[in-house]
Design brief:
The chain is built from 4 helices and 8 strands. By secondary structure, it is an alpha/beta fold. The chain folds into 2 domains: 3-37; 47-189, 3-Layer(bba) Sandwich (D-tyrosyl-trna(Tyr) Deacylase, Chain: A), CATH 3.50.80. Strands 1, 2, 3, 6, 7 and 8 form a 6-stranded mixed β-sheet that branches. The longest helix has 18 residues, at 20-37.
Length: 194
């Protein structure tokens, strides 16, 4: 949060004779608004690609390590500065997205409603910056150990809501095989910038 916003709130507090506790409450509300409106100065965001699949599996070193049936395949990119709150927001959004067809053929049901399965793959390349030159930059991707913690937290949240949760192998070279149903593919991020 910038000094400008703090100064503005302090001036308003003096003008309206607000107690500092009131200023703090308003500041917290403003931070929450900025967080969900994508207006935070530090534009870090946890990103993911969500695909509706009939089935998917992960192969590492020629061995199948994870397999999932009807549900979602999620590629998760963790950026520097991401917190548990980013993971909370994204996971809640993903499992409740109404992208599965109901009996009338309309996308009206969520993963939770259909008791579907989910495969979660960590993918730092989602944070690639391809703006300059021809070689992507991954400077905004979180450091491996911090990213692993966020990934494991995200997976643990999923296991609280979904019965069958499969994962990839963090930092491994993986081959992902999937049958995309639709196709239906969504781009999501915790700052709602797309």
């Amino acid at each position: 949060m910038s000094c400008t916003i703090y100064s503005f709130l302090a001036c308003k507090a003096i003008e309206s004779h607000l107690l500092w506790q009131d200023v703090q409450k308003r500041l917290e509300a403003l931070i929450e608004y900025c967080y969900h409106a994508g207006a935070a100065e530090k534009c870090d965001d946890m990103r993911c690609v969500v695909q509706r699949v009939d089935r998917a599996r992960v192969i590492v070193g020629g061995e199948i390590i994870s397999i999932t049936g009807k549900g979602l395949l999620v590629f998760l990119g963790i950026e520097k500065g991401d917190t548990n709150r980013d993971a909370d927001f994204l996971l809640e959004k993903i499992v409740n997205l109404r992208i599965f067809e109901d009996s009338q053929g309309k996308m009206n049901l969520s993963l939770v409603k259909i008791s579907g399965e989910i495969l979660i793959i960590s993918q730092f390349t989602l944070l690639a910056d391809c703006g300059k030159g021809r070689r992507p930059s991954f400077m905004s991707a979180e450091e491996p150990e911090a990213a692993r913690k966020q990934y494991e937290y995200f997976v643990s949240l999923a296991r609280e809501k979904i019965e069958h949760v499969a994962t990839g192998e963090f930092q491994a070279m993986m081959k992902i095989e999937s049958v995309n149903d639709g196709p239906v593919t969504m781009l999501l991020d915790s700052r709602k910038t797309f």
